[in-house]
Amino acid sequence: MPRFLALFAVLGLFVVAKPALGQSADPVHWVNPLMGTDSKPELSHGNTYPAIALPWGMNFWMPQTGKMGSGWAYQYSADKIRGFKQTHQPSPWMNDYGQFALMPITGKLRFEEDERASWFSHKAETATPYYYSVYLADHNVTTEIAPTERAARFRFTFPKTDSAYVVLDALDRGSYVKLLPQQNKIIGYTTRNSKGVPANFKNYFVLEFDHPFTSTTIYQDKKLDASGLEAQANHTGAVVGFRTRKGEQVNVRVASSFISAEQAEINLREIGQDDFEAVKQKARQAWNQQLSRIQVEGGSDDQLRTFYSCLYRSLLFPRKFYELDAAGKPVHYSPYNGQVLPGYLYTDTGFWDTFRALFPFLNLMYPSVNAQIQEGLVNAYQEGGWLPEWGSPGYRNIMIGNNSASVVADAYLKGVRGYDINKLYEALIHGANNAGPMDAVGRAGVAYYNKLGYVPYDVKINENAARTLEYAYDDFTIYQLGKALGRPQKEINVYAKRSQNYRNLFDKQTGLMRGKNQNGKFQTPFNPFKWGDAFTEGNSWHYTWSVFHDVQGLMDLMGGRNKFVSTLDTVFTLAPVFDESYYGEVIHEIREMQIANMGNYAHGNQPIQHMVYLYNYAGQPWKTQYWAREVLNRLYQPTPDGYCGDEDNGQTSAWYVFSALGFYPVCPGTDQYVLGAPLFKKVTLNLENGKQVVLSAPNNSAENRYIQSLTVNGQAYNQNWLSHKELMQGATLDFNMAPTPNTSRGTSQEAAPYSFSKPRR
């Protein structure tokens, strides 16, 4: 190569190179929405899809590779795209609701998803949170999407043809379409859902094209009709045609509403007169505004990509389920009673997962968003009579626990305000003392729990030991909230006492938690490696640690610090053996534990994710520092196979975000975060109140993973926890990192984080 060409080549590399780490004012640049998309029912690497959306947006968009109705709607290993779907799917296991799809095609007019599908390549695909583009090879068309919260712009670039079409698929299970050629418009609705909705549920949509239609065709239950303009049936759709020059772009503005067709038109105003590029840039700005609340410096490219990809996932759910009326006031269709009512509502989250880290993360970094979520919970309770434990969009009968108590209590105790907390406290008391209309609402087995102090193994209530442990923790959070609200001591003492019910399931013989029969005897035979049965998507080795609020009490039951640490160590040194007989097959959560090469530690599912932080309670914080870094390094990558199990609505991502900062909320409902060790050389948290928290570790590296010393605001700090209240006042934390543990720091009883059995602060 001539020397001057080589020089220009080098200069070109500098032009397109990514910004220096820590200097990018555009953190969305680092996000990979394809992280976790290489998943399938047998093995999850995240079970995610590329969500093209705004933070907490009501509508997401995604390329659809799976068949209509498949929860695995986008899989990285797929070769074909069937359409571009408006989605509200929180996970493939929950599936979708209110979905419909668009698809550009050329050549023969066709509608069926297999016939319209096109081969594509990831080499011709661009995925960002605010913009998606892909080349559809079979149609010689490029599709681009840019979102708003409740609307989106599409741009289809066609070849020269008189047979260019856009397919609208309103899907089956009840839908309606109407063509309005004079207005270049399609309107309609879809009723497709996966339960959790009233009988009158509809998602109304409106599509406005910037080109006149050269042909119109209605689809109705397997039949195409070129003479009709309207159809209502099980499965409807429409195909509109255009004549295009080479490179001609057909633009479509799309919006939807759960309230009405008229509200869908109002939601279309989010786009206004903005062209495609303006919508795209506003969406990019919206993401940068939220992502830049955390600035990280001094890591590798992959660490930065992983961090911001996880932060992106932490800002998607729960999604907005409210809309803004003509006056700009929040209003929502209630999935609890089918009425249209004023106020906020959020949905698509399972508290069994997200109480652990996602909601504490919102309380730290985005409290105003969680204030709206809490107001929405007030509305949910008033409209449905119960707090949801898994909402999508209404009550869903899945998972266990009464963890709305944690979500409500932690928000208030962390200073979130602006909603009726007394109404929510009433909701918590109601949920804690009653069995709901389904097992996953209220408390299944509540009569046994309140009488015996546990849910028995032999009364045909599944996952009874897990329920007992979670109810006990939830009772602790109710006690904490009641205390903060000044409730009568006699009233809250009930929940303080019940918070100790975990003790009833501790088996001194095995040193683990174990199901117990109604007669007070432990269930037999007992296999601590048995998944399910008395536990939920885990075994006794995983659930034994679910005493978030009283780790000292658990430690005492085990026989003290040394035995406690030894048992923690054993989780990692055990072979990844398992007993899947309860399920009759090896479920994907088991397989993900097995292949991780971390013993019986199952980070891919939530019950054990806090476990690595428990060494801090027993005076060996360096083991937390070691294992937290191991999990960060080994089980997360910014790649399609980047997670080690289900991402689960931001929870597994929030674990990474917190742990990369260097602390984690082991016990929501207290003021404390438990220390780990920072991943980056410097992190700046730009708090919503205008204060900053700066975490500085200039000598951090792959080798220097241990905290040698720590100062907070210039003062030596030897505790194994941080105070939320003190962080919210702004703080500077200086970590001196080293390649070997400091086995004298954080070893005292006084350095341990909060436990109910040893209360302070």
TrEMBL record:
InterPro entries: 6-hairpin_glycosidase_sf (IPR008928), GH-type_carb-bd (IPR014718), GH92_a_mannosidase_put (IPR005887), GH92_N (IPR041371), Glyco_hydro_92 (IPR012939), PNGase (IPR050883). GO terms for molecular function: carbohydrate binding; peptide-N4-(N-acetyl-beta-glucosaminyl)asparagine amidase activity. Keywords: Calcium, Signal. GO terms for biological process: carbohydrate metabolic process; glycoprotein catabolic process. Residues 735-761 are annotated as: Disordered. NCBIfam families: aman2_put. This is Alpha-1,2-mannosidase, putative. It comes from Hymenobacter gelipurpurascens. The lineage of its organism: Bacteria, Pseudomonadati, Bacteroidota, Cytophagia, Cytophagales.
